Amino acid sequence: MKNVITFCLLFFSIALKAQEFKTLHFVPKFESETLVLQKDYNLNGIKIKLSNLKFYISDIRYYYNDSLICTSAQNIYLMDVLYANSFHIYEKRSFNFNKIKFNIGIDSVTNTSGIMDGNLDPTTGMYWTWQSGYINFKLEGVASTSPAKYNKFYWHIGGYRYPFNAQREVEISTKSANFTTLEIQLAHLFTKIDLSKLYQVMSPNTQSVQIANELSALFRIPQ
Amino acid sequence: MIKKHLFLISALISISFIFTKSKTLFYQPSYFPKATYNFNKNPLDSLTIELGRALFYDPILSANNTVSCASCHSPYNAFAHTDHELSHGINDSIGNRNAPALFNLAWQNSFMWDGAVNHLDMQALAPISHPNEMGSNIIQVINKLSNNSLYKKSFNKVFKDSTITSSKILKALSQFQLTLVSANSKYDRVQLGTDVFTNQERNGYELFKKNCNTCHTEPLFTNHSFENNGLQIDPVLNDFGRFNITQIDADKFKFKVPSLRNLSYTYPYMHDGRFLSIKEVMNHYTKEAPEIKSYSVKLKIPIKLNANEKIDIIAFLLTLNDKEFVFNKKHQYSNITELTKE
Question: What pLDDT is stored for residue B4 in this prediction?
Fold first, then answer.
């Protein structure tokens, strides 16, 4: 009897899994290479080593010829470079799309709605405790141009209040298909942001807005 | 047909039961505005309240098991810390601000003197994590509670599931704190028509409405806004108040308008506890307006009161003391063993 139940459970879990269709795969990159933590990169003479990358993606919308085909079943995704699986998006049905829109970070309503479970649990390390609010995008590492201790830098980009709201929208046109890969070109940030000035950004302010303004441009169709 | 009636009657009875049950758990005074906390997302339940109460009084929330919420928020001081100008934390550390009194939190949408916290559920994360308060973090708290058989048993009893999570801990703490409704002062009895002010209190009330009520708006005695009331900046603490959160220049040196309820139990006064007596506070507000950029526009016309008028206002303010609240046994110390008893 036990075996029959186990078999049924296994069968249904496979069947359920089969009903999910992969629509997006996000791939963090540093220039032409897929990102590897703690690897030495060199960008225009700056030595860079990344140790942590985590961010929220929310409200994914799929379009075909400018009409909305699907809004993601799950509203908020937490992508963490330590968990490769977190970079894959699945939907309950398969459909063709040629444009997607999504937000980097958490909206102001969610930010002010109290405690939540799952991706929004403060144990994820993506919630500020001294001041309410989610960190939308967290990138940490070492860079030769950072004047901080051990040349470390900390970018915890978040905040939902005007004028330092850090949520940003991304809009990308794709080839018509039911699946696409998107790259996250982290090198872009180091060409735009001066690490000798912005090396410890951990609260909503003018500095965090400067970094937030560059986040949408990280997401690209791979060349 | 009879069946239908029976069904309707039983439905009505169960609805009225739900209403009376929630009424006893949370008191919404008729002359208060509607509470703003979203109870639908965290419906009050007597067991959850008791779990929150045990957590509130348990130093297990601090890194070295020495400091509980109640260390700085004592029930006998209307959940403030009488006689301590600045808050105390683990390893004898001292914070930067006066521990505020806790009551009528269901009507409050921002917490801390600078409004750093935007929801009651999230409030406890700040003291738990602050190095000068409890010096811990939510992951450590979850681990400690999960290794404690009494808590495991209690969480299972309350939530029908023994997994201890942030949301269960924080919602339970919210539930206990939501029950801290202070609305049994003489002022409240006068509102309900069961008591009358003395002539002096009535005169004080009229003066209060003319001079103080714009910010300390009745019946909660705060409008929940942030104001610069003209305190000289303390060069040691150098506290920018609301500006720390908004980074907007106009918010420099603004602090939350505190409620004036339970005033006698919550001294010393102001965000840094610099005034020991209500008299000092009265003198501060009747001084000449200082030349400060973000000084409250509501205070630009100086408050003029003679000595007798000050005494009358103080007589009125004393009617805001809620002795029943301060000595309510339901709010006092309890520990987790109580909850594991059948």
Answer: 56
The predicted pLDDT at position B268 comes to 96
Measured distance CA(B54)–CA(A172) in Å, rounded: 51
Burial label for B191, CB within 10 Å (0-12, 13-18, 19+), is: middle
For the segment B163-181, what is each residue's pLDDT rounded down to a tens digit?
999 999 999 999 999 999 9
Contact B22, B94 (CB under 8 A): no
Q: Is B152 on the interface with A (CB under 8 A)?
A: no
- Give the domains, in start order, of chain B with CATH numbers: 46-181+326-340 (1.10.760.10), 186-324 (1.10.760.10)
Chain A residues touching B122 at Cβ < 8 A: 114-115, 122, 127, 132
Are A123 and B139 an interchain contact pair (Cβ–Cβ within 8 Å)?
Answer: yes
User: Which residues are CB-contacts of B158 (< 8 A; sequence separation ≥ 6)?
Assistant: B45, B47, B48, B51, B168, B172, B339
Asked if B42 is an interface residue toward chain A (Cβ–Cβ < 8 A), one would say: yes
Of the partner residues A113, A122, A132, the one whose CB lies closest to the CB of residue B166 = A122
| A163 upstream amide cis, omega within 30 of 0 | yes
Residue A38 C-alpha from the chain's centroid: 19
Which one of A117, A129, A132 has the shortest CB-CB distance to B118? A132
Dist. CA B256–CA B241, nearest whole Å: 9
Among candidates B243, B16, B284, B310, which has minimal Cα distance to A164?
B243
- Helix (H) or strand (E) run with residue B138 in it: helix B138-146
Q: Which among B117, B166, B247 has the least Cβ separation from residue A123?
A: B166
Q: Say which residue, A165 or A11, is predicted with more confidence.
A: A165
Q: What is the largest CA-CA distance in chain B?
A: 79
Whether ipTM tops 0.90, in short, is no
Residue pairs spanning A and B at CB distance below 8 A: 63
Which residue stretches of B147-277 are H helix?
Answer: 149-159, 166-178, 186-191, 199-211, 243-246
